[in-house]
Amino acid sequence: MGRSTVREETAERDDLLAAAVVKAVQGAGAYAGSVFLRSRDRRSLVLAATCGVPPSLLGGWSLIPVSSPIPVAVAYGSGRTIHLADADETMRRFPQLAVALPYAFGSCSVPVGAGGETFGALAVVWAAPPGSDGLTKTQRRHLRALANRLGASLAACRDRTGDPLEGDARTAPVETPAPSAPAVRAGLFDWNLTAGTLTADDEFCAIFGLDPETFDARVETLAGRLYPGDRAAFRAAARTAAAEGRIVSRTLRVREGAGAGPGGGTEGAGEGHGSGEGYHSVVLWGRVPDLPDDDRARAHLVGVVIDARAGRAAAAAVERLRDGLFSLTPEGRVSYANRSLEQLLDIRGEDVVGQCLWDALPWLSDPAIEFQHRSAMVSQTPTSFLVCRPPDQWLTFSLHPDPNGVTGRVVPTGRPDEAADLAEPPTATAPPQPASPAAAPTPPAPSATVAAAPARLGVMYHVLQLGSALTEAVTTHQVCEVVAHQLLPAFGGQQLALYAVRDGTMHLIFHTGHHEGFLDWLDGMPLHAPLPGTETLTSGIPLFIESQQSLSEGYPGIPIGGVNSWAYLPLIASGRPAGTCVLGFDEIHHFTAKDRSVLTALAGLIAQALERARLYDSEFALARGLQQALLPHRLPVLPDLRTTARYLPCTSGMDIGGDWYDVIPAAEGVSLVIGDVEGTASRPPPRWPNYAAR
To answer: CB under 8 Å, gap of 24 or more: what pairs does 56-60 form?
Structure first.
């Protein structure tokens, strides 16, 4: 199927998703919303459309494993509405989400589907300080009904176009910004150069102070709204357009207030000079349509008039202030900086516009700074903090958010009290935190000197997410399952193999994916073999191979097995090689610098978890052997007496208790014995075996 055909199939779907997420945000009174669609392999949910907060602000939430204890995944899998009123409820019910996004917000996630089939999930987010009630029942019903209508529309779209209704991580989601008042107004016009008439839209009329209902479409009437000295330039623009086919740019001054009547009878020479009338400037752009064999079209000038006075007035007012002021996009990139900020930070505006402050200025390159911005955006709550510009200039940064970005203010301040410096982080206003202190640690205070650029919050998210999931995994198999469920959807891989080192050789302990025998050839290989899976482990350096050609050039003759890209991650625990984790991609995958840093960080977590699980498995095998030695394999058969024993250890999933029992025939009867093994203080209190003898 050609790319254009695929684009036509998904165009209708994109329109449906964009319209639905906007309605969801408006109906819930939220500031952001997202729609996720199931992936082709049904392992993950893929971000397909957003409104308000951009996807980049939420770090790793563009791909969510369907098995994750995350609200949108639970809504998709269970078919239920997941409503979290505030950060407290989020922490109680979804601690992994609270760890990854420790901000004051509420959320509601609902499934999207039709006819018993679920296509994805819809979620909205709103600002929610502790104690918030969240959405009303009416709002939740409205959100669920909206999701159901979206599901029905998507199903009908599939019937018409054949669209499989699947998300593709390689495709950027549809983004709809939050509504805002425009800083620039634009009006459209069509000027008939032959007849001297001008057809304009309502915005054009408003810019020139004309009533659209009474405007007579005469150019003379429009000219009457101009500064007298600009009227000749206005008419010259028409002559230039007729001769050259376009007007590149022409600035005109327009009278403030209501327009003149028909006929433009205000063209007296020198009118407006010294009369106290106000004028504002607009910019006129236009061109003559280049349509062959159409003489009528060449007699028209079509174009736009742009009125940017609101933006210019705001910028002028900001430039008069002595405080440093700046504007950030929702992603955190600088879109404006006034002269006072340039002086306070010793920067040039053109050097930082388009960049994040924490990337442009080394002394702001601290995760705490990015945390403050993300906290303000996600919780929609103003925040402030202190930071020291080397060598000893202390500044207070204040961030004031709305869904379209952040306005920042910087003012000089005195050095914090030395004792306070030692007692607590130097923050003027603490960042919003969930009410439960266990939700997330307070971020470190900004440092005046940073030796190297630290990991960004996107990296921290993946580490927190996998680390949180691994804490619940006990056995080796459970660890492997968690790694597969987290890594494959997060990075778009299709194959995963885990090897452990035993007696100096590689042993395959886990494999998942549709390619049978993926990397089976590595099983049993010695560590000194010149292979990617062994060399990455002995060197301790991850290996990223982006194409079959690169693999063949570096390691001739190695089986490829239908995979196009590989990531070989060394698993080293406590300085000892523990194994290798291999990710495979069916299609060519370009590993970005972020991909490489995240995977390298995660490899350390996986290694520690596997080492812990290996020790657990060994101890479990030993404990189980000891228990089997203590417990009787069968009870003796006794005359006139039937005995039955039931052994119920209270340790979940281990089937080991540490208690023992026996039935011992004696010369004068029978002895029923119950005992407890000493030295098991770490074991929970035993549940006594149940016996029946009759």
So the answer is: 56/331, 57/330, 57/331, 57/332, 57/374, 57/377, 57/378, 58/101, 58/378, 59/100, 59/457, 59/458, 59/460, 59/461, 59/462, 60/100, 60/458, 60/461, 60/462, 60/465, 60/490
Contact 248, 261 (CB under 8 A): no
Tens of pLDDT along 43-55?
Answer: 889 899 999 877 6
- Quick one: how far is CA 105 from the chain centroid? 15
Calculate the dihedral angle through the C-alpha atoms of 163, 166, 172, 174, rounding to the nearest 10 degrees: 70
Report the sign of the C-alpha dihedral through residues 461, 364, 417, 379, in that order. Answer: negative
Strands, sheet with 246-255, edge to edge from the N-terminal-most edge strand: 197-200, 185-192, 300-307, 279-287, 246-255
- Say if pTM beats, i.e. exceeds, 0.90: no
8 A C-beta contact, residue 43 and residue 68: no
Token readout for 359 is: 């990337």
Q: Are 429 and 396 in contact (CB under 8 A)?
A: no
Q: What is the β-pairing status of strands 44-51 and 174-176?
A: parallel
Q: Which amino acid is at 170?
A: R
46 in Cβ contact with 112 (< 8 Å): no
Tokens of 577: 């090689």
Using one digit for the tens of pLDDT, what is the confidence trace for 350-398? Answer: 888 988 888 888 888 877 788 888 888 888 889 998 988 888 889 999 9
How large is the C-alpha radius of gyration of the chain? 34
Tell me the C-alpha to C-alpha distance, in Å, between residue 574 and each of 366, 472, 608, 612.
28, 21, 8, 11
CB 505 within 8 A of CB 527: yes
